[in-house]
Each structure stands twice: as structure tokens, then as C-alpha cells.
Design goal:
The protein is an alpha+beta fold. It is 31% helix and 38% strand. The chain has one domain: 2-Layer Sandwich (Alpha-D-Glucose-1,6-Bisphosphate, Chain A, domain 4), CATH 3.30.530.20. A hairpin with an 8-residue loop joins strand 5 and strand 6. The longest helix is centred in the C-terminal third of the chain and has 19 residues, at 134-152.
Length: 156
């Protein structure tokens, strides 16, 4: 990582009390994503889900105030069960899209999930943090992931 990227990134991580394969599965299957993805109070409707390099995930996040937020993710790299790299924007040709890397590190039977998003400019990073509350939203999303995975361990 360059110093320039450091100025344009948002990084959030969380321990999840489950093996990393289980945590990775929660990112790779729409039946799981629909139950936990997004900040507190948000729900997600998936329109297209192709979990493979070059695949896309088109979804709408529904805010607690009724606002809908279109999202378009293109999976750039998927390395089971260590890493997912994706381009994330509001639509396929979004000029403000950013690249997020999710890493899954095994830690004594648990998994440390780290979300690292790198924006094209410092201004876009600032906007994500200040206007869209990216850090708080990512923390809440990982919290919801942990609750989902820990509650559903051992269930199919």
C-alpha cells in the first residue's frame, strides 16, 4: 500500500466467532447476505448475484427512512476462503466507484474480517466518511455479520 492510498482508504475490522470458511460463506451466498448485509436498520434486495470473478451483485439497500440506494458490485478476485476484491459503485459505469478488499484471517478458531476500501480521490473518501458515514456503516455491517454467523453456526 502506498502512502497515497492510505489517504484515500477506509479500513474496518471485526472478530467473528466462527471459522473463516463459515464467515466467507456468509459473503458468498445471497441467502446469507440478505439477512445481514448493510448498516443497522437497512435491508437489502438482490436483483442479480453472480459470485465469481467477473460476476456482479446488483442490489438495492433500503434505508430505515424509506430511501433506496442502488448498488453495483463487480467481483474482481475471489480467493476462497482468504479474500474478495470488488469494485463497488451505484451503477456499472459509476465514475466514483471504489475498490474494496475483504480479507478473512483465521485466528484461533475465529475469523478476523477486514474491509478495506480505497477511493479514487481523497475528496471521495471524505464524502464517504462524512456524508455517508462509511466507518460507522461498515462497523454496523460487520456487527450484523457476526450476529448472523454466530447465531446460525451449524445450521444449513
Amino acid at each position: 500500500m502506498t502512502g497515497e492510498e492510505k489517504d484515500r482508504e477506509v479500513v474496518v475490522s471485526r472478530m467473528v466467532e466462527a471459522p473463516r470458511e463459515v464467515v466467507f460463506e456468509a459473503f458468498g451466498e445471497v441467502r446469507h447476505l440478505s439477512k445481514w448485509f448493510g448498516p443497522s436498520g437497512f435491508t437489502t434486495t438482490t436483483h442479480v448475484f453472480e459470485f465469481r470473478p467477473g460476476g456482479v451483485w446488483n442490489y438495492t439497500m433500503h434505508g430505515p427512512d424509506g430511501t433506496d440506494y442502488p448498488n453495483h458490485v463487480e467481483y474482481l478476485e475471489i480467493s476462497l476462503p482468504e479474500r474478495i476484491v470488488m469494485r463497488h459503485g451505484s451503477r456499472r459505469d459509476d465514475p466514483d466507484a471504489f475498490v474494496s478488499t475483504v480479507t478473512f484471517d483465521e485466528w484461533a478458531g475465529a475469523c478476523r474480517v477486514t474491509l478495506r476500501s480505497v477511493f479514487k480521490t481523497k475528496e471521495l473518501q471524505d464524502r464517504a466518511v462524512e456524508r455517508f458515514h462509511a466507518v460507522k456503516g461498515a462497523e454496523q455491517t460487520l456487527s450484523r455479520l457476526a450476529v448472523h454467523v454466530e447465531r446460525n453456526r451449524g445450521k444449513s
